[in-house]
Design goal:
It is a single chain. By secondary structure, this protein is an alpha/beta fold. It folds into 3 domains: 57 residues, no CATH class; 59 residues, no CATH class; 107 residues, Zincin-like (2-Layer Sandwich). 42% of the residues lie in helices and 20% in strands. The protein has 7 helices and 11 strands. The strands form 3 sheets. It has a 5-stranded mixed β-sheet with strand order 4-5-8-7-6. A 3-stranded mixed β-sheet has the order 1-3-2, covered by helices on one side. It is flat, with a radius of gyration of 22 Å.
């Protein structure tokens, strides 16, 4: 039988979580005998092995960033290759690029799928390149999330009312760097989003936005909550599954 890490608490049921490194983490009620837990793990052995294989495949696909020329960086589901160029060359090029997303010396060239960083090749220290690109991602997230929230909020409000629910007010939108959560909604109407979602395809980011907005009507994961989500995004299950299966591809740091 596979080795596993056991955590006991006052919970009522057993659950299994497969860690990113393939470790098996089991959460169990305080009262449940150890042999019952072992039996449960044995019954789930095929499922566990399948999940470990899936994680291994995703781990192999996960980009190992060196922050050197040629590195690939995801943005809205597309991979952009890093290139360095001088300040004068950057300005000259940007004058011709109408679709570039520019912030603090970082710019996208969408046609060729390139990410340009204002720097001389010999002066491009990996730590400074990493900082510049992360700041660029954060800036993009701060533009994109409020825009998507503004688009979906009226729709969520109308759909909630049609279900007989009263949607709460939207208070504040915050962009955060989190390792385990893609988004959250507080009882005060504060929405928090993980900036790494700007790496994912736009429809995945929209799923998280809609998910959190629906919590303004139902601060739980009840059947009514999921009914509201699916009334806005009929393929929400597929989008949710994509995020679960591919979330490791959006990792920034180990």
């Amino acid at each position: 039988m596979e080795a596993y890490q056991l955590t006991r608490s006052k919970r009522k049921s057993l659950s299994i979580v497969i860690g990113k490194d393939g470790t098996i983490q089991v959460k169990a009620p305080n009262w449940l005998p150890k042999y019952k837990i072992d039996q449960f793990i044995q019954q789930k052995s095929e499922w566990i092995q399948e999940k470990q294989r899936e994680l291994s495949l995703i781990e192999q696909k996960k980009p190992a960033h060196t922050f050197r020329e040629g590195d690939g960086f995801l943005f809205q589901g597309e991979t952009y290759r890093l290139r360095f160029r001088s300040r004068s060359r950057q300005k000259e090029q940007l004058d011709r690029e109408q679709t570039a997303r520019v912030y603090k010396g970082v710019a996208l060239e969408e046609r060729e799928k390139l990410m340009y960083l204002e720097s001389d090749l010999e002066k491009a220290e990996a730590s400074l390149v990493e900082q510049s690109i992360e700041e660029w991602y954060l800036f993009q997230a701060k533009q994109i999330f409020p825009e998507r929230v503004s688009q979906y909020y009226p729709l969520v409000s109308r759909q909630a009312q049609s279900q007989g629910a009263e949607i709460g007010p939207l208070n504040r939108i915050s962009i955060r760097s989190q390792k385990t959560r893609w988004g959250s909604c507080s009882s005060k109407g504060n929405l928090n989003f993980n900036w790494r979602l700007v790496m994912a395809p736009a429809e995945i980011l929209d799923y998280v936005v809609v998910h959190e907005l629906c919590h303004l009507a139902y601060l739980n994961h009840s059947g009514q909550f999921w009914q509201l989500v699916s009334s806005i995004l009929p393929d929400c299950r597929e989008r949710r599954s994509w995020l679960k299966a591919n979330g490791l591809l959006l990792e920034w740091k180990d």
